[in-house]
Amino acid sequence: MVLLALALLVAPYLLILLYTLPVIHPVSTLMLADLALFRGYERQWVSLDDISPNLVQSVMMSEDGQFCRHGGVDWGEMKVVVEEALDGETTRGASTIPMQTAKNLFLWNGRSFVRKALELPLAMAADFVWLKRRTMEIYLNVAEWGPGIYGAEAAAQYHFGVSASDLTRRQAALLAVALPNPITRVAGKPGNGMQRLARVVERRARNSGEYITCIYG
Q1: If you count DSSP H runs as helices and E runs as strands, how many of each does the chain have, helices first?
Q2: Are 138 and 127 in contact (CB under 8 A)?
Q3: CA angle 21, 140, 155 (to 5 degrees)
Q4: pTM of the model
Q5: Which of 49, 185, 190, 197 could disulfide-link 178, Cβ–Cβ 3.0 to 4.6 Å?
Q6: pLDDT averaged over the chain?
């Protein structure tokens, strides 16, 4: 049992090394669960160059504005969240894109200290090993955008009937604001609240030049 536990702990770090290879197209734990339950899923892997910059900018400015500057974990945001939790306040999310990528690839959904304790070193290891472009490419190809809908290409086709390379600024912003809960936030059928959030993200994405230099520098 001890050896099995050690193997499970070490395996994700070995996979992080393997996933540096661009010919490897990782799958998420949710995708594996869909296969195990015979539900199947939709995902067409596309390179970062075949994903509209509108989506990259929108996701970065919605999910992780300091993506190009931190080492996998935004410790400033994490400190604020911990202080709020200690004060008994409702905490906001502090997950970076590397943290969400690590969770999607190796862990499970749901908030718990155990998952977060596993997620942090995985995110730092991934950020150390992968180029920022590779991290973003993997994230946008494993993110969930609806039941059985994974990755930017499947999401763009499912919600808007276009390729990921042809997403407009508004479509990209809607996909970005759907990410925290893609089951209840349907990018292709946004309510007024989603539309308001999308307008904010769209404005930030339009002015994101200094924040995205690690992708389009």
Answers
A1: 11, 0
A2: no
A3: 130
A4: 0.94
A5: 185
A6: 94
